[in-house]
Specification:
- The chain has helices at 3-6, 14-30, 50-66, 93-101, and strands at 34-38, 41-46, 71-75, 83-88.
- It is of the alpha+beta class and 103 residues long.
- It has a domain at 32-103.
- The longest helix is centred in the N-terminal third of the chain and has 17 residues, at 14-30.
- The protein is globular.
Length: 103
């Protein structure tokens, strides 16, 4: 893995980031049921609705484009059970999640 793959920086411009924060991130933030800190990131628990699943997929797709250093694990069980999203990454990713994503 070269340095460009592990560099902790977002590829979005400031206006793009602010737009995303005011839409997708803001919506997800209001429905977090639980937040658990892990060594290299966080695990977020959300209601297991189809609407939330769609929002999470949009979020993951956009983050994969702008922040390729993130690792996402989405745990989906039977309907009506909570959905869990684990976001981790290399050194520095945890701080980045807290400061830039503010989740």
């Amino acid at each position: 893995m070269n340095n460009s793959e592990t560099e902790i920086c977002c590829k979005l411009t400031s206006s793009e980031l602010q737009k995303r924060k005011s839409t997708v991130l803001a919506e997800l933030k209001t429905v977090i049921v639980e937040k658990q800190e892990v060594r290299d990131g966080f695990i977020y628990t959300f209601p297991g609705t189809d609407v939330i699943l769609n929002q999470l997929m949009v979020f993951i797709q956009s983050e994969r484009e702008c922040c390729p250093f993130f690792k996402f694990e989405l745990t989906i069980q039977e309907q009506k059970n909570p959905v869990r999203l684990k976001i981790t990454g290399p050194d520095g990713a945890k701080t980045f999640i807290g400061q830039e994503l503010d989740l």
